[in-house]
Amino acid sequence: MIRKIVSIDEEKCNGCGLCVPACAEGAIKIVNGKAVLSADNLCDGLGACLGDCPQDAIKIIEREADEFDEAAVEVHLKDTGRKPAHHEPPATRHHGHHAGGGCPGSRAMTFEKPEPADEQPAGGKIASRLRQWPVQLHLVPTTAPYFQDADLLIAADCVAFAHGDFHREFLEGKALVIGCPKLDDNNAYLHKLTEIFRSSSIKSITVLRMEVPCCGGIVMAARQALAASGKEIPFREVVIGIQGEIKG
């Protein structure tokens, strides 16, 4: 079948190995000082490893490849002694640490819960309400621990810049993923969200979009992913105006 899959440029690769822990499926290994794909059926083609390559040697291409096989991934992880992302020990998930080593650019991290906004001292700095990293939908691991029993916020990229009270009004207490349906591949978003919904016990879904028509794509991807997951999860859509007002 023709599908998206990781491609590694041997000329650019310097064998640093940062992409190895970045791949939750364990599909990449180092052979003779170069990163290689262990097997086509172990690669989901989502590119979570892209952000960890300092040489820009990894990209996503479309070619003839075996279908991604989750069962094969399970066996492979067991054989290589690696654990799926959602089974990582709690010690790797506290403040200031990230799971699996390597560059933190796309490693799953959970932060200490910040103080509620109303407990901050008068005149003090406004604390970020962000509780995890990464947030970009292409980069988040589908089985990240911060998705378990979470209220999920799916936000278009521009929302946090347009709405001045984004952190306190929408982000606080939620897991976050962001994306741009105009500039990115919405089919990739659909696939990624479907896997997140299937593998995690999401309690609620809030989708924040801008009022511009193209931004409706992120809502469509979320609704289709929820339907594909076969789950029934409370779903809310909020529209933000280009001047930051809540329009519905």
UniProtKB/TrEMBL annotation:
Region Disordered, residue ranges: 80-125
Residue ranges of every copy of the 4Fe-4S ferredoxin-type domain listed in the record: 4-33, 34-63
Record SUPFAM superfamilies: 4Fe-4S ferredoxins
InterPro entries per record: 4Fe4S_Fe-S-bd, Corrinoid_activation_enz
Ranges of compositional bias, category Basic and acidic residues: 80-91
PROSITE patterns according to UniProt: 4FE4S_FER_2 (PS51379)
Cross-referenced PANTHER family: IRON-SULFUR CLUSTER PROTEIN, IRON-SULFUR CLUSTER-BINDING PROTEIN-RELATED
Protein's name in the database: 4Fe-4S binding protein
Gene source species: Geobacter benzoatilyticus
